[in-house]
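Sequence, structure tokens reproduced for reference:
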Amino acid sequence: MPDPLASFLAALDLTDTGARTNEDIFTGPSQWSPLGRVFGGQVLAQSLLAAIRTTEEDRVVHSMHGYFLRPGDVKLPITFSVDRIHDGRSFSTRRTQAYQNGQPILSMIASFQTQDDGLDHQIEMPADLADPESLPSTAEVLAGVDHQVAKFWAEERPFDLRHLESPIYLSVDGNRVAHQSIWMRAIGRLPDDPNLHRAALAYASDYSILEPIQRRHGISWGTPGIRVASLDHGMWWHRFARVDEWLLYVQESPSASGGRGLSVGRIYTRDGILVASVAQEGMVRVPHAD
């Protein structure tokens, strides 16, 4: 079994091909997954890192908006082309296209800014929450479940996710509410590169963001016939945090209709600093859904 953290870091170590048109070209591997589709968070993180490679070091990503266009194939590498759209006095804008077999699988625009002082406030983190150490890990929740996806989630993901409400892997217990919170962190120590941690946060933000939609309708990941796919992903980085330390991901879904659902999330450090905000719309389809 491959080391999940080593596989994760290898996927984010992009290769500069040296090729140049009017764009910068990079390549990266695809991580294996049991269903044969590339994890969306992986492509987001890789696309962001490709854009970072073309931006001045003093300019830090503050926002990203991406559209998932086609499912990626885990058997194929991914090519990333970066268009240097704009470099202003304080902001830079980059567009990254991710390709397999000559077709785009993701299109993303990211904005970068020089560090600056300004107004500062945040929504406070929810209080009186259980500590992550008191909650079961995914490996503990899914121990003994003889299914390839369950084994992959339990043993081969580079992040440890711990639900404050009961997990919805096999069933949805408790009230059908459109909100949840999750503690998450990388399963081991990561290099100190701040941009790697920002990209890793984008990676992890895609794991569970659509779960509030499922929880509201009693749809577990094990529901027969369920079809869930990310359509787009927006992310805003407010402050820096390491992803190999515990982060709280507060999530809710304001609406679902027409086979689509919207979820939004806020990510906090353990001591209450708001690190990032996330929004994603996804396709959620299941036979006879409420």
Summary: Residues 40-52 form the longest helix (13 residues). The chain has six helices and twelve strands. The CA atoms of residues 249 and 267 lie 5 Å apart.
